[in-house]
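Quick one, T. Sequence first:
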Amino acid sequence: MSQLSRRSLLKGSLAAGLMSAASLGGFNAVFGFSRVLGQAMEDDSVETIINLAATAELFATTHYYAAIQNAAALGLDEGGVNYMKAGMIAEADHYDLLASLGAVPVVTEFYVPETLFSDAAVFAATTEVAETTFVGAYLGATRIFSKNGQPNFAVTTAQIAAVEAEHRLFARQLQRLLPNNLSYAQFLYNNVSEAVPVLQPFLDGSGEGFIGPVTPPTAQQIAAVRADAGMIGYNTESMPYAAIAAM
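Structure tokens:
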């Protein structure tokens, strides 16, 4: 991929605008809401947590599958494509876990910036925003499960947050930004539901320049990517702590 300047990343797209806000810790400035760290409010229910998480994971699976299909347009080399395959497998695994717990996604098709899968800068910036949001949301879920005496689920959501942070790292690497730029993952939301304003344009197409709907990959398409797991060196034996604890 050609060298991408910070200026080119921030010019001419909603996704780049979101990236700018994210890099400054200013999601609230873009979406008009304030962080609630330390504020008293009712916690999300388990149903809300898993349904919203399933929605995010279905979107992420869709996102990475589309990137694989548009690898040439995005300038992804073999290593980049393998990373997208690994990312898609992880997100699909997360979705399957949530579905096994009874989660139902809020929507089953999505909207994206028009050039998301043809402009490498837009793709990388959007991916960073999404993955930063996912990390923050899962940390919010970890707080709730810990507070409510459900350590098995708290550890599991922390596991997922750690993997989403790995995806965030690669998105920053694509932008020629320092990938590992944090001592602590950002705790952005007390509740998973607070992440919805950031993701809303992807759910309903309300963002300027968004197109769609984009449908998730089929079970057969997901299986085809999973079949490459061994070839790309993906570890298929890792397990959620909730499942380990239940053994």
